[in-house]
Amino acid sequence: MIIIISPAKTIVNDLPCSTDHSTDPVFEHEANKLASYMKQYTTSDLIELMGISQKLAILNYERFQSWDRSDTEKLKAICAFKGEVFNGLKGWEFTEKELEYAQNHLRILSGLFGILKPLDTIKPYRLEMGTEMDFGSLYEFWGDKITNEINAQIAATGGPVINLASKEYYRALNPQKLNAPVITPDFKDLKNGSYKIIAIYAKKARGLMSRFILKNKLTDPEDLKAFNEEGYYFNGHLSTAENPVFTREN
Q: Which ranges of the chain have pLDDT less than 70?
């Protein structure tokens, strides 16, 4: 299986990682090109471009102005992102062997780096995939590069692709060109008498599902049905083969 997830907006440097091994992003050249392009934006430009506060704009302006991938202050992706998905994944708790396994089966989509392996080194940044740049969208910039890279990993380890990314990031892929079926789990909570996707809960559940797959080294999509973390359970009435649905009532 190949799991794809979205990155988080927040990046930290205080989480442990159980290995000294690290790798370089496959699209480092493209990331450096985008970072160099971002240097032309003022803080006011970033506020408008990203819809962020002045404080965040200043922070990210300084990040891009000082961008240098040759320095040593780089963080392993799986232990650097901080958000609901990664709170569910808890990559900082993985053993060295579990991280090695995740390296072959988990991919983090990224507006700046395109696609990241768990142990790829990154620097703090903010550039969401849906950002519309002066030269066009990041979807246009990346084209089929991300899809082709996932196909290379499918050839190495096999499919299917378990899509646990947000819609914004999944749009960076071309599913018709993937050499494996795509399975997209959904997570719904009971609210006002019906099951609904509640974003903050669904994000964490995607991380929990990623952790469940990696910890148990799942290879058969049928085994996803055994997922029962934090009150979620497989709901066969709402599910299809391509879209298994997990619900909870509390």
A: 69-73
d(CA 156, CA 183): 19
Burial category of 87 from C-beta neighbours within 10 Å (exposed 0-12, middle 13-18, buried 19 and up) = middle
What is residue 74's predicted lDDT score, i.e. its pLDDT? 79
pLDDT at 69: 64
Cα distance between residue 217 and residue 211, in whole Å:
10
Give me the pLDDT at residue 135, please. 85
For residue 194, give the H/E element and its range: strand 194-196
Handedness of CA 96, 98, 101, 102 (dihedral sign): negative
The per-residue pLDDT for 73 is: 64
Question: What is the radius of gyration, based on Cα positions, of the chain?
Answer: 18
pLDDT one-digit tens code per residue, 65-117 = 988 866 556 799 999 999 999 999 999 999 999 999 999 999 999 999 999 99
CA angle 132, 136, 141 (to 5 degrees): 100
In Å, the largest CA–CA distance within the chain is: 54
Q: Which tokens sit at 56?
A: 């965040």
Contacts of 30 (CB under 8 A, 6+ apart): 113, 114, 141, 142, 145
Name the residue type at position 102: A
Decide: 81 and 108 in contact? Cβ < 8 Å. yes
Who contacts 54 (Cβ-Cβ below 8 Å, separation ≥6)? 43, 47
pTM over 0.85: yes
The residues, any chain, with a CB within 8 Å of residue 37's CB and separated by 6 or more, are 133, 135
CB contact at 8 A, 16 and 176: no
Q: Which residues pair with 195 in a beta bridge?
A: 190
